[in-house]
Design goal:
CATH topology of the largest domain: Heat Shock Protein 90
Strand content: 15-25%
Number of helices: 26
Length: 800
């Protein structure tokens, strides 16, 4: 069915269109009687539905024209209109030939029900009646005039009410418009500003309203590009982006730029013609700054090295950072909703500990202390923890934030430091003992050697003297080991290949440990150049192999490997490995009985041994420790009872050079002389034996008891003294200061320093003179005489 709908209100036409289209009808539209008449003549609809009161030609006049037309009069005509004068509207409509009058508004179902009923009742007999009514013009005009007058009066009343409502609405709109904190700009289709709310414009942009009205809105944006971007986004597209909010930079009157959020819509009139735009601009600069600050705080908390936990007031975890997972082993997902105390509780602390903690933080005070917690894997660890309360605007505690620092590495470093300090103290003590011991041995060896020289070969006491000297020799080696431990013994360091040292010493190790303990060596394929004393490193390996043998009384396996390892700064600091860099690593492992933790704590201390009395001096590993430390290296040990022991030795790698080996020097037999020697020694025993040896071999000896006495004796015998033999450490004035004073008198005097301390320690105290010679105590008469002869004959500086 083709239906003509005539109504001056587009919305009403749309509603009817929606009602009627659902039943497959074809709908044509007109907005007044004139348009409707033209449409009826051209389209010949099957049904006309019209409003009553319309501009240009109303519905009643439109009905009269339809009924006058021979070609249109048979078309059913139904009014669908609001009632203005009660039943008179319907009476007039029916008297003019309308088929029905339906009063607005009707629900869709009711409208369609009544319409269908009317269409079913229509019959042909009504046509004659309608034709008769059409000639009653006078009556129609009278009734129509009354109807129009009544409607106009109603319309005037409605207009007055509408105007009052509009004024009130305008006032409400203006009040609401001006109270908005966001800037609302209304512009025409060319984006020239028509209206804007104040004081928001002043607060955000700094303009007065009169300064912006009529201007193109481009000036409020950062640049022309931003202005055009807004246009392309909101105004130039056919499909309007619903709900889109654009972030743009705007410009204040002062020229200052600020971040803003912009939302805009296009304005259309009743005919769907675009008439302008509305833009809402919100200053979000403070929000952006707060957002950036929050992002910075969040990023910082996420990246923090310390674990951070945020809990509710009841202690349930609400947020953790990645460091928390690293510390505890629990992921964020595993932690959320769990009580942080129960999650990590170790059982080490009693209820009173936690009670005191909670009492502190619930009072709003900060709790700080050390606490032992349990890792997810079950291991215990110590952490330093600070818990602070978070309060709301009313001062009520809502959350707690805990910052947790793992003290595991710190405790390791502290333990290493204590161990190093203890070893350093023991080393200092050992060096001092060795010095005093050397003075005693100097007298024993000196007098013993002198006595042996004067005894005949068949003297029955000669063997006793030899045994005494042999025992003294063993004592000398003991003092050297003490000096090695205390890092006060000189080294003959050269560039050597660690692989060659291990390979060379392997055959000696086999003899040391026996045939029932096989040795497996795994050598690094590349050279491992280190700056080292090859003999001392061999001694280290021999000592470790001996210890390994003793730990495997029932047999086992000894494994020696070499390799390369890189230490970064963090690893070196944490594990006490000295400086970061590339290191050659030697590993010595056995399958023996292993070592308990208590023994591991003291394993490198001198004279500490777990062996039976008479089976060990307790210096083997102490010497190893001293040698490695003196090589700027590091040694550590890992062991568990029943699971063997592994020593790892780290030595700094150096640039590869030609590898050298130590060469044993052939020494000449001692000879005497006739020169005059000034001997300065505060130890009476050493002074006497040294003087006796020198006198025995032809030298003239002038003795002094300290440095001041030596300077005084030199002045008394000026010009007659050929060489100074000075002890390094003496009361009143030490040997070095005495030499300085004497060289003020005779600059070219030759000198030898003798000391029970290591030559390297002596060198640090000496003047930088090339002809100062060093002699280590204890020394045999032969060593003393060779050194004396060497210096008097003009040989360069050396150490014996």
């Amino acid at each position: 069915m083709k239906i003509l709908v005539v109504d001056d209100h587009a919305e009403d036409r749309k509603i009817l269109l929606h009602y009627l289209k659902e039943f497959g009808n074809r709908i044509i539209e007109a907005s007044n009687g004139v348009e409707g008449l033209e449409m009826a003549r051209s389209e010949r609809p099957d049904l006309i539905i019209s409003d009553a009161l319309m501009p240009v030609m109303d519905g009643f006049e439109f009905l009269r024209e339809v009924r006058r037309s021979a070609e249109l009069r048979d078309i059913p005509f139904i009014f669908y209109s609001a009632v203005y004068t009660g039943d008179r509207d319907e009476e007039l409509a029916l008297s003019l030939g309308a088929d029905a009058f339906l009063a607005k508004p009707l629900e869709p179902d009711e409208f369609l029900r009544q319409l269908n009923g009317l269409l079913n009742r229509l019959d042909a007999t009504k046509k004659h009646c309608m034709s008769e009514l059409l000639v009653e013009d006078e009556k129609y005009l009278r009734e129509y005039s009354q109807m129009v007058a009544a409607r106009l009066e109603g319309k005037v009343r409605e207009l007055e009410i509408a105007n009052r409502n509009l004024a009130a609405s305008e006032n409400s709109y203006r009040s609401l418009f001006n109270s908005m904190r966001d800037v609302i700009i209304i512009s025409d289709s060319s984006r020239n500003i028509i209206d804007v709310n104040q004081p928001a414009l002043r607060d955000v942009f700094g303009y007065e309203k009169t300064e912006v009205l009529g201007r193109c809105a481009e000036f409020i944006y950062k640049s022309e590009e931003v202005f055009e971007l807004v246009g392309r986004t909101f105004f130039d597209q056919n499909d309007f982006p619903k709900g889109l909010v654009l972030e743009v930079e705007c410009r204040k009157k002062s020229g200052e730029l600020f971040d803003s959020e912009l939302f805009a819509v296009r304005l259309f009139d009743d005919c769907n013609k675009r008439i302008g735009n509305v833009a809402v601009i919100r200053d979000i600069s403070q929000h952006k700054r707060a957002e950036a600050e929050l992002h910075l705080q969040s990023t910082a908390m996420q990246a923090a090295g310390n674990a951070i936990v945020i809990t509710a007031r009841n202690g349930k975890i609400m947020w953790v950072n990645p460091a928390f997972t690293t510390l505890t082993g629990y992921s964020a997902e595993e932690s959320f909703g769990r009580h942080f105390g129960e999650l990590l509780k170790s059982g080490v602390h009693g209820p009173e500990f936690y009670k005191q903690m909670w009492e502190t933080i619930l009072k709003g005070e900060t709790w700080h202390g050390e606490i032992t917690n349990r890792h997810k894997n079950g291991t215990l660890y110590v952490e330093e923890q600070t818990i602070t309360s978070v309060k709301d605007a009313y001062g009520e505690i809502t959350h707690f934030i805990a910052i947790k620092q793992d003290l595991t590495d710190q405790r390791k470093i502290e333990a290493q430091l204590r161990h190093a300090q203890r070893m350093e103290s023991i080393g200092t003590l050992a060096g001092g003992i060795a010095h005093d011991f050397n003075n005693i041995l100097t007298g024993i060896i000196g007098y013993g050697s002198m006595t042996l020289m004067k005894m005949s070969e068949d003297d029955p006491l000669r063997l006793n003297i030899k045994h005494m000297l042999e025992a003294s020799d063993r004592a000398v080696h003991l003092t050297k080991e003490l000096l090695l431990f205390g890092r006060k013994q000189s080294l003959d360091r050269k560039s050597v290949d660690l692989n060659l040292i291990v390979t060379r010493v392997e055959k000696f190790l086999k003899r040391v440990i026996g045939e029932d303990i096989p040795i497996h060596t795994v050598i690094n394929p590349d050279e491992l150049p280190v700056f080292a004393d090859a003999y001392q490193l061999e001694q280290v390996l021999m000592n470790l192999a001996t210890n390994a043998r003793d730990s495997m009384p029932q047999g086992g396996t000894l494994t020696v490997t070499t390799g390369v390892v890189d230490f970064d700064r963090e690893f070196a600091a944490t594990h006490g490995c000295g400086k970061p860099g590339r290191y050659a690593v030697t590993t010595v492992s056995d399958t023996g009985e292993g070592i308990d933790d208590e023994t591991l704590e003291r394993i490198f201390e001198p004279f500490f041994t777990t062996k039976e009395v008479g089976k060990g001096t307790g210096l083997g590993l102490a010497v190893v420790y001293g040698i490695i430390e003196q090589h700027d290296g590091h040694i550590n040990v890992y062991s568990e009872p029943g699971h063997g022991t592994t020593f790892r030795i780290y030595l700094p790698l150096i640039a590869s050079e030609a590898m050298v080996s130590a060469v044993t020097r052939q020494e000449d037999l001692p000879v005497g002389g006739a020169e005059t020697i000034l001997l300065a020694e505060d130890n009476e025993l050493v002074r006497e034996i040294t003087g006796s040896v020198l006198s025995e071999f032809g030298y003239t000896v002038i003795e002094a008891v300290d440095g001041e006495d030596a300077v005084r004796k030199f002045r008394e015998h000026a010009g007659s003294i050929d060489l100074l033999l000075l002890d390094m450490i003496m009361p009143n004035m030490n040997g070095n200061d005495a030499l300085k004073e004497i060289r003020k008198i005779q600059p070219n005097i030759k000198a030898i320093f003798a000391s029970g301390y290591a030559p390297e320690a002596i060198c640090q105290k000496l003047s930088n003179e090339d002809d100062v010679q060093l002699l280590s105590k204890p020394m045999s008469p032969a060593e003393l005489l060779r050194k004396l002869r060497s210096v008097l004959d003009g040989n360069k500086r050396s150490v014996d």
